[in-house]
Design goal:
heterodimer, A: two-stranded antiparallel ribbon, B: mainly alpha, elongated
């Protein structure tokens, strides 16, 4: 009786019954490629894990060159289950980037960006950039040797861009060198600027997915079944999320994320220093690119090429918008396969070479 | 120089003419004359300055550098890199004579103070003319000592030279070279720290040269095997001792039995201090044993190791002590305590390494374990007191630190086990939960199928 009266009170103010009715009516297409629908939800779940573990880490983390390393060390060694929270945060970040890439490529190959879903794609591309920035800024926060030099190299690469490179480098570093000022700045990006921006884009992205519904590949447009979003689809999602927690727990317990040595600006850079795996393909490309191409600096050209590719990513749905254009379809498939192979091969090469 | 001067003049003239032309309409003739006067004055200043800065003439260099006999041309060539030249001195400042004269006879005129080449016996005084004159040296290098000559005559070299007219001994030029003298801070100098031993070895490593003096010639070979030489040559540690740090430089003398501890104590102060308070001090004095070198040797000082102390075969203590005496027992006790600490440190290091390799964060206990290593170093120094009580004072706390490191390693491995066991329990629960949801979906979907005939 009392519960019913509380529900009624809430319903009058929040129209819960209307929302529930919409949820009850909402359906998800069911066909051979439905599996790819779950990667968006998985990415969102891992983002939620990041938020929760990130907030817990904030209880002890101290963002300064003097204290950052020691505070992470304290979290790992002294705080009850601190090691678990820190390791899950690090592993979840990496898994999130992996599922995001899978989600992006599945959307690309299934042409889920066709009208009217162009803005959904663009908001997703923004989220990809934001997540990569999350990774880059978060990597420095433990203030260890590897992170220090990886940030140095990473920001140096940004500094190579003509005209705007130098101001970008100084903006990122908070000066000419990677110092405590860089750490404070990256902390600000990581816990305030990026989460706020990500929240806005996630809201837009999810709202648009709800508005337009799941995209059905052309091949199955007239030949697919449906399942209820609630509870059928969401419970399948739930299984994935529960298993993801299991994977994260296993990774954290079996392969705890290393802390390494405290950063020392005067120490030489460790030999064979490499960035995180999601930057490895770009790093390896820049390593292999000739010093001079047609009289121009090869590294600058490489960085500019990556910038152009990033820009192309945003405008994909505006170039390929006609489902009947088979020739363009083929070209985009070839480009997609080439990009995927390039990323995979260069990442492996970057990983195995010294 | 001429070109440069001409250039400056042209430039200056052009500037003045431009100024005059520009100001024609504004400056009165009186002011113009003043400007011309100013310009001419500037010319004169420039000319005087240029002449003053021109190199002084030296007919000695001009002649000697062209001579075919290398003995006569070498001084002129070498002098180019000499510290004296860089301070504005020339040949005549040491050798006298007239460097402005155009003929050999006029340049080497004794009436103009020409001294020629000094005899070996006169060299210290020859250099000392300037280097012993405090007032003169202040003009060139106020921080340079002026007692080298006086000190030299206290050395074995100086005494032989002065008292026995022995000209085969080292004088100033034997070490500092001649005509190409560089400051001791110049890495090319023969008296730069890493070159000193080779400079001394030129004579002291020659058995034939040393034979008349009755001294050995193996010091350099022995020194090269020493821990000091390794620090100096391999690690490029310029503070590591070479010949002159123990023997002195200008007053070079072998340290006597009574003073050797003071020499070593310059760097190894704590060890020397402990030795002075130890029972060994009295015993060594009575037996006329040179303190440090009795155990550590002199030129071939090897890196000390724990095998040197104790009562086992090869230990130095048993050279004097035998079973049953107090020293023998003390040596055995000190060695066993040090061994105990080493074993404890090794054990802790191994378990921490194991935990680290297994992914556990143990950098803090690893850092704290350095306290035990410090205690070990301290204990190794304290053996110079020959007191087991003193050694025990640091070994005890060292063992405590090492034990804490071991406990931390054990705890880390225990924590790893706990994590793995916890993981198994968690995974069982997680899989159970996932299965529960899976069966719930099946239940819901079968209900939906029975209600509607399909899940659509």
């Amino acid at each position: 009786m009392r519960i019913a009266s509380i529900t009624n009170w809430l319903d009058e103010r929040l129209s819960i019954s209307t929302l529930a009715a919409v949820a009850q009516k909402k359906e998800v297409p069911r066909h051979r490629h439905s599996i790819w629908y779950y990667f968006g939800g998985m990415t969102l779940f891992l983002f939620a894990v990041q938020v929760v573990t990130g907030i817990l880490l904030l209880l002890y983390y101290r963002p300064s060159a003097e204290n950052a390393f020691e505070s992470v060390q304290f979290i790992i060694t002294e705080v009850k289950f601190g090691w678990l929270i820190r390791s899950i945060h690090s592993w979840s970040a990496n898994l999130m980037i992996a599922t995001l890439f899978i989600h992006m490529f599945s959307v690309f190959f299934l042409r889920a960006y066709y009208p009217p879903r162009e803005i959904t794609w663009v908001s997703g591309a923004f989220l990809l950039i934001i997540v990569i920035c999350f990774g880059f800024s978060g990597y420095l926060l433990p203030w260890n040797k590897l992170a220090f030099f990886a940030t140095k190299v990473g920001t140096e690469i940004a500094g190579v861009v003509p005209i705007v490179g130098r101001p970008i480098l100084r903006f990122l570093r908070g000066g000419d060198d990677v110092t405590g000022a860089t750490l404070t700045r990256f902390f600000g990006f990581h816990v305030a600027v990026l989460p706020a921006t990500a929240t806005v884009f996630i809201a837009i992205h999810v709202a648009l997915v709800q508005l337009h519904g799941m995209h059905v590949p052309q091949k199955y447009e007239h030949n697919y079944q449906r399942m209820k979003f609630f509870p059928n689809f969401i419970m399948r999602d739930l299984i994935g999320w529960i298993l993801a927690i299991g994977v994260l727990a296993a990774l954290a317990a079996l392969f705890p994320w290393e802390l390494g040595e405290k950063a020392d600006a005067f120490a030489p850079a460790p030999a064979g220093i490499k960035p995180e795996w999601y930057f490895l393909f770009m790093f390896q490309t820049l390593k292999w690119i000739p010093a001079k191409i047609l009289g121009l600096d090869g590294e600058v050209l490489g960085i500019m090429a990556f910038n152009v590719i990033a820009l192309l990513l945003f405008i994909v749905p505006f170039i390929d918008r006609d489902p009947e254009n088979r020739r363009r379809h083929l070209i985009f498939n070839i480009c997609g396969v080439f990009a995927l192979l390039f990323i995979v091969v260069m990442t492996i090469v970057g990983y195995v070479t010294k | 120089m001429a070109l440069c001067l001409r250039g400056s003049l042209c430039l200056c003239g052009e500037m003045i003419s431009r100024t005059l032309h520009h100001r024609d309409t504004e400056i009165s003739p009186r002011h113009r004359r003043s400007l011309i006067n100013l310009g001419l004055s500037l010319f004169l200043v420039l000319i005087v300055f240029s002449l003053a800065s021109a190199q002084k003439k030296s007919s000695c260099i001009e002649c000697h550098i062209r001579l075919d006999d290398p003995r006569l041309s070498a001084p002129a060539k070498l002098f180019d890199n000499d510290i004296h030249k860089s301070r504005g001195l020339s040949c005549n400042d040491c050798h006298g004579g007239d460097p402005n004269a155009d003929t050999k006879e006029a340049a080497k005129d004794p009436s103009k103070g020409y001294l020629g080449k000094p005899k070996t016996l006169d060299i210290p005084a020859y250099c000392g003319k300037c280097h012993s004159d405090a007032n003169l040296m202040k003009r060139f290098n106020p921080s340079l000592r002026v007692d080298q000559e006086r000190e030299y005559y206290t050395s074995v070299h100086g005494k032989l030279l002065k008292e026995k007219n022995e000209t085969r001994v080292a004088t100033c030029i034997s070490c500092h070279s001649v005509h190409g003298i560089r400051t001791p801070t110049d890495p090319l100098s023969s008296v730069y720290p890493s070159n000193v031993a080779t400079t001394c070895a030129k004579f002291h490593a020659s058995a034939d040269y040393m034979k008349p003096f009755g001294i050995p010639s193996d010091q350099f070979d022995k020194y090269q095997t020493s821990v000091h030489a390794k620090a100096l040559y391999d690690k490029q540690d310029l503070s590591a001792p070479t010949c002159n740090d123990c023997h002195g430089n200008h007053g070079a003398t072998p340290p006597g039995i009574a003073s050797v501890a003071n020499v070593c104590g310059q760097c190894h102060g704590r060890q020397a201090e402990l030795f002075q308070t130890s029972p060994h001090k009295k015993a060594f004095d009575e037996k006329q044993l040179a303190e440090c070198i009795t155990c550590h040797s002199n030129h071939a000082i090897l890196k000390p190791n724990d095998q040197m102390i104790g009562t086992q075969q090869g230990a130095l203590c048993i050279n004097c002590h035998s079973s049953g005496d107090k020293g023998f027992a003390a040596a055995g006790m000190m060695r066993s305590r040090i061994d105990e600490l080493i074993a404890s440190i090794d054990k802790s290091t191994a378990i921490l390494k194991d935990a680290e390799e297994k992914g556990m964060e143990v950098s803090k206990p690893k850092f704290e374990l350095k306290g035990a290593t410090d205690a070990l170093t301290h204990a190794r120094v304290l053996i110079h007191s020959s007191s087991t009580a003193e050694v025990d004072k640091v070994v005890g706390p060292g063992l405590d630190v090492a034990s804490k490191g071991y406990q931390a390693g054990l705890a880390a491995l225990g924590e790893r086990r706990f994590r793995r066991e916890g993981l198994i329990v968690s995974l069982v629960f997680i899989l159970f939960l996932a299965l529960l949801v899976y069966f719930k979906i099946r239940q819901i979907e079968s209900r939906q199928t029975s209600n509607t005939g399909s899940t659509s």
